[in-house]
Amino acid sequence: MSECTIRSTVAIALATAALAVSGCTAPDDHDHATMASAVTFDDQWASSAETGMAAVFGTVTNNGHHAAHLVSGHSEAAGRVEIHEVVPDDTGSATMRPKAGGITVAPEDTHQLAPGGDHLMLMELRQPLLPGAEVTLTVVFEDGSELPVTAQVRDFAGGHEDYQAGTTDHG
């Protein structure tokens, strides 16, 4: 083989290796992570209730690089879990209602679930939620991923808001 042929062969081999290496780099895990894997739910607690419904509060933190969109939930303690909001009505009092579209937490941001604001509702309780006990639920994200949550039950009378019944389809 001539020196020119060897150089050409080496150059082609190096170019092929460079393309192979650049195509095999590990993808950024944050780009392919599920919404649930990027979120933490802290300082969570639930209101006590003998029957009916109870609220779940806490701080939802999105540690990811993409928005996390909570759309529903489920719990063995309740017939259904809904995402709710409290809004002022025309009379000057507050109304609690299902929150259309769920809750979106921006990347590297937090969202408070608090009395008088956004929160999760355990509807059609299947058992009493007594102060000092714990209740488990799972929040579901738009991508189908799920985050289990355990909340301590506390005595809480509520925010004295009216309840606007109805369910929404969150996806």
How would you describe the overall organization of this protein?
The longest helix has 21 residues, at 3-23. The chain has helices at 3-23, 29-32, and strands spanning 39-47, 54-62, 68-74, 78-88, 94-98, 103-105, 109-113, 119-125, 134-141, 146-154, 162-163. Residues 4-30 and 167-171 have low confidence and may be disordered. It is built from two helices and eleven strands, in the order H-H-E-E-E-E-E-E-E-E-E-E-E. Strands 1, 2, 3, 4, 5, 6, 7, 8, 9, 10 and 11 form an eleven-stranded mixed beta sheet that branches. The protein is globular and about 40 Å long. It is mainly beta and 171 residues long. Helices cover 15% and strands 44% of the residues. Strand 1 (39-47) and strand 2 (54-62) form a beta hairpin.
User: Can you give the mean pLDDT?
Assistant: 83
Percent of residues in beta strands?
35-45%
Give me the secondary-structure category: mainly beta
Q: What is the ordering of alpha helices and beta strands?
A: HHEEEEEEEEEEE
Rounded to the nearest angstrom, the distance between the terminal CA atoms is: 66 Å
The number of helical runs is 2
Radius of gyration: 25 Å
Query: How is the main sheet built?
Result: 11 strands, mixed
Low-confidence stretches: 4-30, 167-171
Overall body shape: globular
| E-strand count | 11
Helix content: 10-25%
